[in-house]
């Protein structure tokens, strides 16, 4: 493990001592695992995180999943018990893991702007460039992965949310569609994807393409610090309600988060034998469709996409009809707010009800990673 992983340890355990494992039915992710294998072998392997696990370490599990169809919850668990070993991820400071949730909003949009549909979703601009150690200006922090190339060749920070909201990109033909609400657009930026329902009934999809580069700043944290919302009450719903009650302060609060997201139009995709349809989740960072309730966003600087995790959050009960959340999940996405070895974001699905479920998830959780047998020996 690299220095980046020095603040946590992996503790080898058995499936018998993995609390909640025998209550789960991990039959659902096998189709997505097959998609991951195709992505790795036919397109491009996933970048390895600092934990030191690679796509090559994952492949034996994905190959075994190709021809396996679980006949029962026990057979699905047996597959992972045969091919993996579980390791608890423990922070050295003793703090627990933490989960939130995300979803794919559905937004009513128009192909053309008018007095009602005024707030655009933008494609990536051509003057936005990827930054690395070779071209990053000295005045920009290492966290900046994107910048602006000026006409004279100079590289600097890209304009932030306020500048873009005030018209920096107007007239460049970058608009994908227009929404009715600036707040709706902002929360699509937070989620990183959306289903777009056009006025003629057509359903489109957009997904993350790039960002302006500025750090993400949580407006919920701002509202807590300003005394506007009690910390115990913070959620997407309470933030939206506050913004609705204080329309004159919407810009002030949203502009606190200087980060700005650009999108690309994404076709509907199929999982396995299912034809392309909007019920299949959006394509996220791992380039495979997300599966509601079984897809996890992780810190990709530490973890590698495609690996299975078992997440146990005893206080998270509203996703499983009052029972504690105990599920096998696949690491398929990431996010700027998902930082640390035991920090995860659970994908709850698409549409309004998925958003209602996602908005109140803020729970301590235990994280176990399931490492394929051949690679597991390196972590004993």
TrEMBL record:
The keyword Cell wall biogenesis/degradation applies. Residues 106-264 form the Lytic transglycosylase MltA domain. GO terms for cellular component: outer membrane. The keyword Transferase does not apply. Its EC number is 4.2.2.n1. It is an enzyme of class 4 (lyase). Transmembrane segments: none annotated. Gene3D superfamilies: Barwin-like endoglucanases (2.40.240.50), RlpA-like domain (2.40.40.10). One of its GO terms (biological process) is peptidoglycan turnover. GO terms for molecular function: hydrolase activity, hydrolyzing O-glycosyl compounds; peptidoglycan lytic transglycosylase activity. This is peptidoglycan lytic exotransglycosylase. It comes from Rhizobium lentis.
């Amino acid at each position: 493990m690299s220095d980046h992983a020095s603040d946590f340890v992996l503790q080898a355990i058995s499936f018998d001592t993995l609390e909640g494992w025998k209550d789960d039915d991990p039959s659902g992710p096998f189709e997505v695992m097959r998609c991951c294998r195709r992505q790795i072998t036919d397109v491009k392997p996933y970048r390895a995180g600092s934990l030191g696990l690679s796509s090559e370490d994952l492949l034996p599990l994905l190959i075994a999943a190709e021809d396996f169809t679980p006949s029962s919850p026990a057979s699905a668990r047996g597959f992972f018990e045969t091919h993996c070993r579980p390791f608890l991820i423990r922070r050295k400071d003793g703090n627990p893991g933490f989960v939130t949730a995300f979803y794919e909003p559905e937004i009513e949009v128009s192909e053309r702007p008018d007095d009602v549909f005024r707030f655009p979703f933008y494609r990536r601009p051509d003057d936005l460039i990827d930054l690395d150690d070779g071209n990053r200006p000295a005045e920009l922090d290492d966290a900046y992965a994107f910048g602006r190339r000026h006409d004279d060749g100079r590289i600097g920070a890209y304009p932030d949310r306020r500048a873009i909201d005030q018209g920096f990109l107007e007239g460049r033909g970058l608009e994908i569609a227009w929404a009715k609400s600036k707040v709706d657009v902002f929360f699509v930026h937070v989620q990183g994807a959306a289903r777009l329902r056009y006025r003629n009934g057509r359903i489109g999809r957009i997904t993350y393409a790039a960002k302006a580069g500025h750090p993400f700043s949580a407006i919920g944290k701002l509202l807590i610090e300003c005394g506007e919302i009690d910390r115990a009450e913070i959620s997407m719903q309470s933030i939206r309600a506050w913004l609705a009650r204080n329309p004159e302060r919407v810009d002030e609060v949203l502009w606190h988060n200087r980060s700005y997201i650009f999108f690309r139009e994404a076709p509907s995709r199929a999982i396995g034998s299912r034809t392309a349809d909007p019920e299949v989740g959006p394509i996220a960072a791992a380039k495979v469709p997300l599966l509601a309730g079984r897809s996890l966003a992780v810190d990709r600087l530490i973890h590698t996409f495609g690996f299975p995790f078992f997440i146990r959050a005893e206080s998270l009960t509203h996703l499983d009809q009052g029972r504690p959340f105990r599920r096998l999940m696949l690491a398929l996405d990431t996010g700027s707010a998902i930082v640390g070895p035991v920090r995860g974001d659970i994908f709850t699905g698409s549409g309004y009800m998925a958003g209602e479920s996602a908005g109140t998830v803020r729970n301590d959780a235990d994280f176990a990673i399931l490492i394929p047998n051949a690679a597991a020996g390196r972590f004993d």
